[in-house]
Amino acid sequence: MALSTLDLKHIAASGGGMILTASNFSTLDLKHIAASASTTQAQITLKDLRGISTLDLKHIATSGKGCVVFDFT
User: Fold this and answer.
1) Are the C-beta atoms of 54 and 27 separated by less than 8 Å?
2) First and final CA of the chain: distance in angstroms?
3) pLDDT of 15-69, one tens digit each?
4) Is 10 exposed, middle or buried (0-12, 13-18, 19+ CB in 10 A)?
5) What is the radius of gyration, based on Cα positions, of the chain?
6) Model pTM?
7) In 3-state terms, the chain is what percent helix, strand and coil (to 5)?
8) Any idea where the domains of the chain sit in the sequence?
9) CA-CA distance, 22 to 48, in Å (whole number)?
């Protein structure tokens, strides 16, 4: 089931945690989802991080204010 970025932001803002395949989203979308999660302390786990720079990961983490977990496995 594919959900839009807006749907994911609303779910995160409602307190729903999620595991996302990061390569399916733009960095800007991930930052927005992370920021929505931070308002309710919902946990967002990002997998498949290839192609995302360290700088972008730092920006996503900053937006998430401690709610983002990066899966580097």
Assistant:
1) no
2) 24
3) 999 999 999 999 999 999 999 999 999 999 999 999 999 999 999 999 999 999 9
4) middle
5) 11
6) 0.94
7) 50, 15, 35
8) 5-70
9) 6
